[in-house]
Amino acid sequence: MHIDQWLETVPAVSVYLLVGIVIGLESLGIPLPGEIVLVSATLLAASQDHINPYILGTCAVAGAVIGDSIGYLIGRKGGQPLLAWLGRKFPKHFSAEHVATAERSFQKWGMWAVFVGRFIALLRIFAGPLAGVLRMPYWKFLIANVLGGIVWAGGTTAVIYSLGKVAEDWLKRFSWLGLVLALLFGLGSMLVMKWRSKKAKAAAVTAADSETAEPEPVPAGD
């Protein structure tokens, strides 16, 4: 069977569910590749007419908002012991250093950390549970959560779908090769965005550390 024919047999509902569930679990605090799944599914939608990008984007937004909200409630109930348990369970993602970095971001930026964190892999996992642990007012968290979910999930779907459509139309004569190249193009764009986000985050953390550093004592005169 030709790969295009096989892709046409993939039920659209299964793609929607996969995207919503993976992004929801990642937002809840489980380290999963939500962004990669969303980009891959969006590129698939660009090449397969039976997958609706609007429904796909809606499922991604719903997964992000619901997952973050559940993570917030779990964090609020579990408190610091929850972070300690996550550190033992997922030491690569919830190490003491990562938790401290995320806490500094939340203390400095408040609800903006929830919004901006949606675009940064580390903070995307932390946002819900940590906001609950730090007792951020839920109404503030909800506003930042919903807006961040719409801009990140909806925006990513729109941008990658548009790029995928252009790439698919240009490369359609190469069949499966065109799909692979479009996927690589989308993933490359995602990695560039993630690299820029990490660079901006590192600069923000450095600035926050310099502000909180105590000034060196001035030597007393003779």
Automatic annotation (TrEMBL):
Residue ranges occupied by any VTT domain in the UniProt entry: 32-161
Pfam families xrefs: VTT_dom
Spans traversing the lipid bilayer: 15-46, 53-74, 109-134, 141-162, 174-193
Domain of life according to the entry: Bacteria
Main location as per UniProt: membrane
Membrane topology qualifier: Multi-pass membrane protein
Annotated keywords: Cell membrane, Membrane, Transmembrane, Transmembrane helix
Membrane in keyword set: yes
Any one of the GO CC terms: plasma membrane
Keyword Thylakoid: no
Subcellular localization: Cell membrane
The family this protein is said to belong to: Belongs to the DedA family.
Name by which UniProt lists this protein: Membrane protein
Source species: Streptomyces violaceusniger
